[in-house]
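Revision sheet: C-alpha cells.
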Amino acid sequence: MTITYDDFAKVDIRVGRITRVEPFPEARKPAFKLWVDFGSEIGERRSSAQITTHYTPETLIGRQVLGVVNFPPRQIGPVRSEVLVLGLPDASGEVVLIGPGHEVPLGGRLF
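Predicted:
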C-alpha cells in the first residue's frame, strides 16, 4: 500500500526518555509498564511493552526511545496506554526498541 507524504506527516513520532519501569504481571505475555517523558510540550505518557527478553528495568531507565504520541489512548488490561513505543523484531521475533544514536532533546519530532 502506498501512502502520500501528507499521510505520513499525520503520524507524530517523537523522542522521549523512559523515566520509570514496572513489571506488568497482568499482561498476557511478559511485559513492562513504561513511563516516557517527551519534554515540556507533551509531558509524560504511559505505555506497556513486551520487551522483557532484551531489557530489564535497570537497562530501560534513562533510555531514549521513539514513540507515536498522537494515537488515541488504548486500554491494555489495567493499563491505559497513551503512547506507542516503537521497536523492530530481531531474528527470533523479539522486540528491539528504536531510539536515536546520540542524545537529542526530548520531544524532538521525526520528519
